[in-house]
Amino acid sequence: MNHGGVPSSGETSGSGRSGIEVFSPSGQRVSTERSQPTCLVVEDDHTMRHLVMNYLGEHHIRAISASGRDQVAGLLVREEPNLVILDLRLGQEDGLDLLREIRSHSDVPVIITTGHRRDEIDRVVGLELGADDYMTKPFGLRELLARIRAVLRRREAGQAAVQRDQERGRCRFGGWQLDRRIRRLTDSSGIPVALTKGEYALLLAFLDAPQRPLSREHLLQATRIHEDVFDRSIDVQVLRLRRKLETDPNAPRVILTERGVGYVFALPVEAL
């Protein structure tokens, strides 16, 4: 959506690059030398895009933009943004399809935005596809900034956790082995079993506290699933993990339900 004949982000901006607009803390377009976190704003509404970008620039976040999916892949490679703000309503394009494409080759944090409160299903699907947070339009720029900073903090904490995982090495539970250094789970036959980002985070939460009741709130925090979107999200994640770990998911023996509390990982965990 291009308002009032103003050039879209697909045209050459003040940065001298096609498809990229960069704003300084004063709101002026500047060169693309990086000294601050970089945020890619994917938004086809020119007015909204510039409002967000100017505000981020004023708060020491380098902002670049794309108005459609054809520009995003190249920007992810060239600019390596620290975070993406993705509108799910990109004219005739489907933002969820673009999110799938991003997740197929990048784990960059993504905040999705939707235009209507009734789009709950899109928010749920977006989070299941790997979005890190969401906002519903119209939203306040101060809240957006707070969410961006929170996502970036979680990202830093997650990277620190990866480092700790690599240092911890391997562990065994039942006939399973997990190598945290390469995030690889193998069954008793040595066959690798693929885990989603959410399933892996949930498994780590259980392995870090085996044979202890863990509340849904604790697991939600550990996996960063948004309970305000779908209050049974953690149960869905547990069900999916059970399908991969349990001989009979309907009669679980690895992940047990502790009624009134949450869940218990029933097996002892041995460091290797």
From TrEMBL:
Its main location: cytoplasm. PANTHER family: DNA-BINDING DUAL TRANSCRIPTIONAL REGULATOR OMPR, REGULATOR OF RPOS. Signal peptide: none annotated. It is found in: Cytoplasm. The modification 4-aspartylphosphate is found at D87. Residues 168-267 bind DNA. Residues 8-19 have a biased composition (Low complexity). One of its GO terms (molecular function) is phosphorelay response regulator activity. This is Regulatory protein VirG. The lineage of its organism: Bacteria, Pseudomonadati, Pseudomonadota, Alphaproteobacteria, Hyphomicrobiales. InterPro entries: CheY-like_superfamily, OmpR/PhoB-type_DNA-bd, Sig_transdc_resp-reg_C-effctor, Sig_transdc_resp-reg_receiver, WalR-like, WH-like_DNA-bd_sf. Residues 38-152 form the Response regulatory domain. Residues 168-267 form the OmpR/PhoB-type domain. Residues 1-36 are annotated as: Disordered. GO terms for cellular component: cytosol; protein-DNA complex. Residues 25-36 have a biased composition (Polar residues). The keyword Aminoacyl-tRNA synthetase does not apply. SMART domains: REC, Trans_reg_C. GO terms for biological process: regulation of DNA-templated transcription. Keywords: Activator, Cytoplasm, DNA-binding, Phosphoprotein, Transcription, Transcription regulation, Two-component regulatory system.
